[in-house]
Amino acid sequence: MEFLVASAIGILTAAGTYMVMRLRTFPVILGMSLLTYAVNVFLFASGRLTVSAPPILTDAEVYTDPLPQALVLTAIVISFGMTAVVVMIALGSYLGADDDHVNDPVIDPDAPDGEAKP
Amino acid sequence: MTHWIILPVVLPAILAPFIVLAARYHVGIQRVFSIAGVIAQIVLAASLAWQTSDGTVLLYQLGDWAAPFGIVVVGDRLSTMMVLLTAILGLFVLLYSIGSGWDTRGRHFHALFQFQLMGIMGAFLTGDLFNLFVFFEVLLIASYGLMIHAGGNARLRAGVQYVLFNLMGSTLFLFALGAIYAETGTLNMADLAQRLSSVDPAETVGIRLAAVLLLMVFAVKAALLPLHFWLPSSYAEAPAPVAALFAIMTKVGAYAIIRVYTMIFAPGVAVTAGLHDVWLLPAALASLALGMIGVLAARSLDRLVAFSVIGSMGMVMVTISLFTPESIAAALYYIIHSTLAAASLFLITDLVAHGRGDLRLTAQPFFAGGRRTAGLFFVAAIAMAGLPPLSGFIGKLLILDAAFDQDSMRWIWAIVLTASLISVVGFARAGSTVFWKARSVDPEPDAETFPAPDALSYVAVGGLIALLVAHTVFAGPAYRYATATAEQLFNPTAYITTVLETPGKLSDAKAKDKEEDH
Fold first, then answer.
1. Which chain B residues are Cβ-neighbours of A46 within 8 angstroms?
2. What is the dihedral angle through the alpha carbons of B390, B393, B398, B403, rounded to the nearest 10 degrees?
């Protein structure tokens, strides 16, 4: 199981890193989502992997660490909200400029009003 | 246990939804509540700073759960000083945004402003690493809204870059937190500081990785080379009052580095030897040099100021990276100076933009209110470039003095002094082009003229400049306070015992645990 979870985190991170380095906003946002999935699983695994044990301190000998679950919940909510925000801003930028490249356009500072160079 | 210390976080958290829900359509009411809120913040922050000035550590346990089970809010000299600085900066930025009418160019400026303050205050006051992440997100999500306030294509595009870069920073932060929790089983800063000594010296891979990841996250916030790429366009494109408020955001990164790397991964801790104590200084020197060269190379005034922020953050980080009590004290003095100077420069840039319509560094006809603006720019540029007599010069002297008996002294002195010279040339060139040469250009007969900026705008900028002068005049007391703060940082015993030994719910369980351990 450790191998499965570890390789899942690794593949998600690798794919996410690759996508984040693309030039257009849509693949970059997809890459960001992959990275956040990877980090959520990683956080979940940081309390060690235990199968079919209660996430609560009881008299039982075996239990799952409940804290990472709480951390993951917070992280999921935050990353979900952040992804929604970045999608909205990126859409606004795309619809406004008719261009969804992530990098700055080459601006000729001597031209009036900072027109983009052809 | 006092409840006052949570108020700098709770007050804006209540005020912001109130402004959105009740005062949505009345800018006047929003302004009144926003200003009242910030003034209350200043009073609160000043009283907290007063309480901690004798070295007491204030502690608030949320829900009365004892640390490390519950979340704690901790105020020591450093936290309360930064909270006070934020509140004062917030007041002047708010005055400017009202005077210049920036708050009416889009919706919900005041609500987002309060949320932004809440995040910054929380980041300074929290005593828990995961909570630090949460407050980082609070301040970031408010800053995303403020960053694209009033819209525009260039601003939205810069906003996308800013949001994406910071999202990646947040993801790294979570990876670091997961690694730390997996290695030590706690995220409470005081508890971590204690448990780090019990990490097996043979298996330090995880904790070393986490320490470096965490440093990278804070370096993104502090715009340290090579993680500074988000700063120039976002600060230049953001609305001027927002950029001025962002002057404290880079300091949040510096604060987090000071806090974590003096208390948890302290310079003497064997587990993380050879990491940040070796690599932080070259990166800081490089970003100092790059920032000041950027000042000289910039072709518009807003980019110039943005690069000067990178340069002054480099200066702060050079000093922090020495990790001695003297250097941290010098860094704290310089942090206050650099926040005030950067904020006033951003506001002055907006005064220029108001009069001329664009910010290119070319000679253009003189504009209304230009004489006053030129005078303010002159003073702020002297402060930022670190020329006598203002606080930038004193700060630089303290930094050079702190580096005097270090092995790396030659490098630090050479780069700090050369970079200062370059920035002096850059600021002099910009000032003479924008303000001096304006006399030699005749205005076109049909050119539109803009009215002089509102008096309140000048009050706000003048207030920041006056604070810079006060920081210079009272440099002695300020530096003594910074020294006392640095001493407290290097003796974290009081902080750790206050956090871990104050009784609360579950502290019996902790005591029982300890007995079983022994």
1. 178-179, 181-182
2. 170
- Say how far apart CA B61 and CA B5 lie, in whole Å: 10
The confidence score (pLDDT) of residue B193 equals 87
**Domain map of chain A by residue range?**
2-50+62-102
The verdict on a CB contact (< 8 Å) between B178 and A39 is yes
pLDDT beneath 50, residues of chain B: none
Residue B447: CA count within 13 A, CB half-sphere: 14
pLDDT of residue B518: 54
A46 touching B (Cβ < 8 Å): yes
- Residue B160 has its nearest CB partner, among A68, A89, A105, at A89
The answer to whether B113 and B246 are in contact (CB under 8 A) is: no
Question: How much is the average pLDDT of A99-112?
Answer: 67
Structure tokens at B21: 């829900």
Closest CB to B163: pick one of A68, A89, A105.
Answer: A89
Q: 């000035």: which residue's tokens?
A: B53
The whole-angstrom separation of Cα B105 and Cα B156 is: 15
Chain B: residue nearest A35 by CA? B171
- B171 to chain A: nearest residue by CA? A36
Those residues of chain B whose CB sits closer than 8 Å to some CB in chain A are 130, 134, 137, 140-141, 144, 148, 151-154, 156-161, 163-164, 167-168, 170-171, 174-175, 177-179, 181-182, 233, 299-300, 358, 360, 362
Residue B344's contacts (CB-CB under 8 Å, 6 or more residues apart) are B244, B376, B380, B383, B461, B464, B465, B468
Tokens of B143: 């800053």
CA distance to partner chain B, nearest, from residue A96 (Å): 6
What's the confidence (pLDDT) of residue A64? 80
Report the SS3 class of residue B74: strand
Q: Work out the angle between the directed axes of helices B77-99 and B475-490 (0-180°, nearest 10).
A: 130
Domain A2-50+62-102 indexed as CATH 3.30.70: no
Tell me what pLDDT residue A108 has: 54
pLDDT at position A114 is: 45
Chain A closest-CA separation from residue B51 CA (Å)? 33
